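A reminder from the course coordinator: this example appears on the midterm review sheet, so study it carefully.

Given structure:
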């Protein structure tokens, strides 16, 4: 994943702040970038795939509701 420079810098800052706050461990920019790259490569795809599954589920529900609405417009033929 290639992030925009400003976004990557923001995320690195958040990682540094988190490690400082939670672990009382200061991370340099290099270490924080390495950690970000590790999670992006090893954890990111799981979040990505879950997001796709969520979108597909929402799309299917929307399509089903649309189909029901269309069938609801049918006229009864006697």
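Designed residues:
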């Amino acid at each position: 994943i290639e992030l925009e420079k400003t976004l990557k810098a923001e995320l690195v800052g958040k990682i540094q702040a988190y490690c400082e706050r939670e672990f009382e461990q200061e991370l340099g920019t290099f270490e924080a970038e390495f950690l970000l790259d590790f999670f992006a490569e090893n954890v990111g795809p799981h979040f990505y795939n879950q997001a796709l599954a969520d979108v597909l589920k929402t799309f299917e529900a929307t399509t089903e509701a649309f189909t029901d609405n269309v069938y609801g417009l049918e006229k009864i033929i006697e």
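The mean pLDDT is 95. Residues 1 and 44 are 9 Å apart (CA to CA).
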